[in-house]
């Protein structure tokens, strides 16, 4: 039976449809195989992104160190909060590893991160919508301390994890802040956080301090587990170079503490101070006020200048030492010659001494000791204006010192008119920088040779050992001979020791001091100069010890709040004396005047009445300390036969209840002796001398009494400052070189 072929259109169309699909699919597969691309994206790259992972290994930023290797700035451990928003991170629903409730998570994190709940929630939701694996919270989620991290971790928020990070730390707080500066994290275009120096050495040497990040490359499966047989390839990071400064942390702390005290007491508009080694040019300390804390930026104002090198000032009378040096070098100085003090006229201008009327006919030596402007005018006549300006150039004024810091100011030395040169002899009209004064004055402590100031000792990479910069003492000009320098130092010392000297307030008990005070006019923003009891820049440029200077110190205090009876040199001297005296003792510079004392040999006081022994010791100027109630002595320290000197302590143990004494000023040895006899449970913190105690003096000792005693370095102990203001101060007018010095009548 013959079958009739019947064409099936439905089947044919279905065949064509599937054949077309197969052809399209085949073409697509062949195209992908041939090009390795799909939808404009390289599949190999997408696969690598999925399975190949790279983790950045952050390099540590270089440290900034003081001259002894003490850390001034360094990276420290911090944490970064991350929210995992991908559901793929959770393998077990009962133990979620991603954010389950964005609203609740945002509300809890807002309490810890200091950011708004809305901002945090927006970050999380954007991450979920864009199918990201994890998100961060910007600056709010970075630089978390260990304590802050633990507080968030205790909230048990699903999906919130922490990554170890580095944070810039300035362990000393307000400490040479305008010199060291600060560094902060900033976000790059790709969302990475990098540390960048923003100010001071952190900004100047940002490239040197910034290390080179490393990386770790590895392969994982779909779930993020490391594939077997695929070892991670690690490129180690190279940390940034360390910068070692000439700054001495201890001396800088002396300076910071003194300036803080004066700032709190006198509220000046500005303070500047620098301590240098005149023999080498090394800057040992520098600071200014107002200042700020680089950790928190508290106190940071619009003034980012390092004023020691960038601010130009009319220096006032410290310039007189350079005028004096020029006169001596030119053989125009006769200390015993007389001149008429009070006023001096040049063309139509008249300058006056700071008391307006002078002291009659006085010698040039007395004129310098009294800081007479008129004496400078007569010296200028003897030297000659042109020759005088040559010495100003030789001392480096009007040009940069070349200190290893950028943006150093030149200052402006006026030399257009006769009055410009006359005013310059006593430090008005023209401007200089504090570091120029330091460099110029170093000549007098160094045989007539100036030493170039510097603050960076060495820059070296701790990983590679590469030294990129190394400084040492560098000699500058020699504007005067060694003999002239010696004579200048002697005359500068007389301003401190003479009963007519303006610098008597700056004398130290144990060291000879030489220097020159200053009371410079402060320019008025509207023109001219400001007037009034306080409206001056009070300063002192001094050396110690005078016969062999180890320190050169410049201190300037502008417009402090003074009582009517107070002088502008008081806040300046408080800084200078505290810093200089403590620094010399810290440097083990032997005091120049040691009072001879007769030693006291102790007897055996056992069994004798304690009250009688105490009276006898006090008559020998020895301080007895009773441990117990009045009665007979049972034990003593130091032992019998020991020789001690006036002012030292002798411990007398008796029976009965013990009362806690005032330990202030006691040395660690004395504290240990007291502990040995009393049996008191004492904890000593620090080194030096007792400054604080946890139990007040006079408290009876109970069976379980424990006491903590904090010890500090000598600054808290040396009490020669207590004698200040006792009526021995010289009678110095409020403005030692006032507006009348350079103002034309």
What does this structure look like?
- The C terminus is likely disordered.
- The chain is flat.
- 38% of the residues are buried.
- It starts with 8 loop residues before the first helix and ends in a 33-residue tail after the last strand.
- Strands 4, 5, 6, 7, 12, 19 and 20 form a seven-stranded mixed β-sheet that branches. A five-stranded antiparallel β-sheet has the order 14-13-23-22-21, with helices on both faces. A three-stranded antiparallel β-sheet has the order 3-10-11.
- Helix 9 packs antiparallel against helix 18, helix 11 crosses helix 17 and helix 13 crosses helix 15.
- The chain contains 20 helices and 31 strands.
- It is of the alpha+beta class and 745 residues long.
- Strand 8 and strand 9 form a beta hairpin.
- The chain folds into four domains: 45 residues; 189 residues, Penicillin-binding protein 2a (Domain 2), CATH 3.90.1310.10; 341 residues, DD-peptidase/beta-lactamase superfamily (Beta-lactamase, 3-Layer(aba) Sandwich); 122 residues, Trypsin Inhibitor V, Chain A (2-Layer Sandwich).
- Helix content is 29%, strand content 22%.
